[in-house]
């Protein structure tokens, strides 16, 4: 039984069957990649995990509890954090403030009326946030506006914000999209380190095969809303169905 | 001090000094001089400065921090006023319970309006709040006449005999603070100058300082940080396990209570209420004040409120006769020309001046008057640094032996 169990999930947008009978099991403490050509339904599937979309059919269970019908913030409080394709951070706030917000969310829950307390008195929050910044090598940017950081730094900040909540499942939506090779490699190293240091499950959607094969322990290939195969990276590499899906050899084979 | 950092303590100290010394500061010109009409140090106007300051501070907590633009905030001010005047009419002529009642009533009303309006954001939120405010205005005007007095509004009448008062039959009650009449003033004459110290003004001023202090605390708190996060990226906030709704609702209610506080104080100063207090232009005015002063800054809304109220009361009083006085030293033709040119901008035309200034601020100083102040400050600092450099260079040259 995996930490994330997806059963018979289907989702239709008008005439388009975006997801069709998707079954998926992400094992605890593994790195599971979901790959597939454009329009395969990867992002739709991810959105069904985090409460942005509700599938028409099927179930999504996280740690034995259904996530369907819950709000994004509730699902996050259950232990699922999400990293977006373009870094979603609080651009108008300082880097330190960005880092403190998830720390508050972890400690105080979805809402707390702490309107009279002053931030400098929140010693434990400050300590945790500073530790996270140091760990991610962002301490130099502490008092900078998050908007003025480089793309790679924003990505690291977003990952740090997700990790500050000690999530059990980290979802990454094309974390290296639009990055230079060097930044991509840094991100791979960072994710490897996170994997080694923490008890965390990582599910990753990715186009870049280099990233996928450096990180993933299991790979699910999605095509036209349906999982084609699920296997280890080595088996996926030479799999004929995968090549078919990616290179469009269906017709020549038939 | 008081849980504030050095800069904020300095800010509130300055505001406190300004409020206390306002009767002097706002009356710089001697009585009877040609400039005396620019004096703003009379009780009625000073009260308006601080009361609208409170209103704008509260509005800015909502708009400046979360970015939710309420276009119906005058409704809370009006509802608070009605609550306050009923307290004066029925319960006690002491203004404290009546102000508290104004705050409570406005808070409850804001809870209801916010609960519905905050289901939407952006322009739809603004329209919903506007709809609520116009509905309140229309109701106060018509079907709610038994409670609101309709078109004539409510005032303390000779027939009112509040529970905790011993008025002679037929005597009209006066609002007071533990026996201190709100309208009592005492005047100091210093040479040609006349300074007026008014009880009502000082009560409102102290309340404004407290309200300002509370607003700073809220802005600097973790709660305030969450509100800024809502403005910055609501999506990230949701995916960080935080529920934006209760945060926005809480600040909406706080903001409504500030408006109610302002409404209650208005009643305490001048014991009457009419529905026009809730009209949409009144809601628009507080938006103007906040943006003009600098939305999201601490002191901006207070400056904006003061600025607009000054224009409204001072510029609007300049009439043709006064212009003729000013330009009397010019040759006749030029005098007439100048009067014709200036006239549309003063007197009843003060809105034109305000509109032009508002446009100028929005276009050239998006951060409002506060940004203007900062820019001026920066220019001076740069000039200081330049002159230091120049001196240093000069010193260097002096030390270099001539070849």
From TrEMBL, chain A:
InterPro entries according to UniProt: AAA+_ATPase, ABC_AA/LPS_Transport, ABC_transporter-like_ATP-bd, P-loop_NTPase
Superkingdom of this protein's organism: Bacteria
A Pfam family the protein falls into: ABC_tran
Record keywords: ATP-binding, Nucleotide-binding, Transport
GO cellular component: plasma membrane
SUPFAM superfamilies in alphabetical order: P-loop containing nucleoside triphosphate hydrolases (SSF52540)
PROSITE patterns: ABC_TRANSPORTER_2
GO molecular function: ATP binding; ATP hydrolysis activity
Gene3D superfamilies documented for this protein: P-loop containing nucleotide triphosphate hydrolases
Domain named ABC transporter: residues: 4-249
Protein name listed in UniProt: ABC transporter ATP-binding protein
Organism name: Sulfitobacter aestuariivivens
TrEMBL record, chain B:
Keyword Transmembrane helix among UniProt keywords: yes
This protein's UniProt keywords: Cell membrane, Membrane, Transmembrane, Transmembrane helix
GO CC annotation terms, alphabetical: plasma membrane
Cellular localization per UniProt: Cell membrane
One of the record's GO molecular function terms: branched-chain amino acid transmembrane transporter activity
CDD domains, sorted: TM_PBP1_LivM_like (cd06581)
InterPro entries (alphabetical): ABC_transp_permease, LivM-like
Topology of the protein relative to the lipid bilayer: Multi-pass membrane protein
Pfam family of the protein (one): BPD_transp_2
Membrane-spanning residues: 12-29, 49-71, 91-116, 123-144, 199-216, 246-266, 286-305, 326-346, 352-373
Protein name stated in the entry: Branched-chain amino acid ABC transporter permease
Source species of the chain: Sulfitobacter aestuariivivens
């Amino acid at each position: 039984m995996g930490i994330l169990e997806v059963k018979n999930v289907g989702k239709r947008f008008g005439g388009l069957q975006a997801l069709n009978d998707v079954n998926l099991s992400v094992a605890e403490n593994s790195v599971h990649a979901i790959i597939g050509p454009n329009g395969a339904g990867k992002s739709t599937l991810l959105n069904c995990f985090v409460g942005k979309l509700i599938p028409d059919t099927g179930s999504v269970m996280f740690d034995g509890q259904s996530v369907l019908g819950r709000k994004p913030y509730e699902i996050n409080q259950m232990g699922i954090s999400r990293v977006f394709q373009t870094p979603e951070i609080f651009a108008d706030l300082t880097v330190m403030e960005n880092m403190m917000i998830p720390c508050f969310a972890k400690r105080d829950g979805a809402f707390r009326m702490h309107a009279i307390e002053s931030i400098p008195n929140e010693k434990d929050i400050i300590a945790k946030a500073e530790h996270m910044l140091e760990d991610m090598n962002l301490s130099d940017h502490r008092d900078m506006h998050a908007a003025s950081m480089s793309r790679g730094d924003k990505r690291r900040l977003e990952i740090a914000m997700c990790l500050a909540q000690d999530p059990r499942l980290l979802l990454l939506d094309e974390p290296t999209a639009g990055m230079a090779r060097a930044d991509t490699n840094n991100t791979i190293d960072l994710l490897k380190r996170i994997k080694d240091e923490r008890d965390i499950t990582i599910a990753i959607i990715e186009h870049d095969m280099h990233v996928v094969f450096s990180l993933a322990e299991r790979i699910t290939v999605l095509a036209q809303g349906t999982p084609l195969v699920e296997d280890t990276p080595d088996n996926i590499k030479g799999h004929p169905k995968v090549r078919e899906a990616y290179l469009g050899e269906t017709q020549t084979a038939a | 001090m008081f849980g504030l950092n050095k800069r904020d303590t300095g800010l509130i100290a300055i505001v406190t000094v300004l409020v206390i010394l306002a009767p002097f500061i706002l009356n710089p010109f001697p009585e009877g001089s040609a400039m005396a009409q620019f004096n703003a140090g009379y009780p009625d106007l000073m009260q308006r400065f601080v009361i609208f300051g409170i209103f704008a501070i509260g509005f800015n907590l909502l708009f400046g921090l979360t970015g939710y633009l309420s276009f119906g905030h005058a409704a809370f001010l009006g509802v608070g006023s009605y609550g306050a005047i009923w307290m004066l009419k029925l319960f006690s002529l002491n203004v404290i319970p009546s102000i508290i009642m104004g705050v409570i009533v406005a808070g409850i009303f804001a809870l209801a309006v916010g609960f519905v309006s905050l289901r939407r954001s952006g322009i739809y939120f603004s329209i919903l709040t506007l709809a609520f405010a116009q509905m309140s205005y229309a109701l106060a005007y018509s079907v709610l006449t038994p409670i609101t007095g309709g078109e004539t509004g409510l005032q303390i009448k000779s027939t009112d005999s509040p529970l905790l008062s011993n008025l002679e039959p037929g005597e009209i009650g006066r609002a007071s603070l533990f026996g201190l009449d709100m309208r009592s003033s005492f005047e100091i004459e210093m040479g040609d100058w006349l300074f007026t110290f008014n009880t009502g003004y000082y009560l409102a001023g102290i309340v404004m300082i407290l309200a300002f202090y509370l607003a700073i605390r809220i802005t600097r708190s973790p709660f305030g940080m969450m509100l800024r996060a809502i403005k910055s990226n609501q999506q990230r906030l949701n995916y960080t396990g935080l529920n934006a709704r209760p945060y926005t609702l809480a600040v909406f209610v706080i903001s409504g209570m500030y408006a109610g506080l302002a409404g209650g104080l208005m009643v305490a100063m001048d014991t009457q209420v009419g529905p026009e207090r809730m009209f949409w232009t009144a809601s628009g005015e507080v938006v103007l004040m906040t943006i003009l002063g600098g939305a999201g800054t601490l002191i901006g809304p207070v400056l904006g409120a003061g600025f607009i109220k000054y224009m409204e009361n001072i510029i609007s009083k300049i009439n043709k006769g006064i212009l003729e006085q000013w330009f009397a030293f010019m040759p006749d033709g030029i005098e007439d020309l100048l009067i014709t040119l200036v006239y549309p901008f003063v007197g009843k035309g003060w809105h034109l001046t305000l509109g032009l200034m508002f446009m100028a601020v929005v276009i050239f100083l998006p951060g409002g008057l506060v940004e203007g102040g900062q820019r001026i400050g920066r220019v001076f600092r740069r000039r200081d640094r330049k002159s230091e450099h120049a001196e240093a260079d000069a010193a260097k040259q002096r030390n270099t032996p001539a070849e």
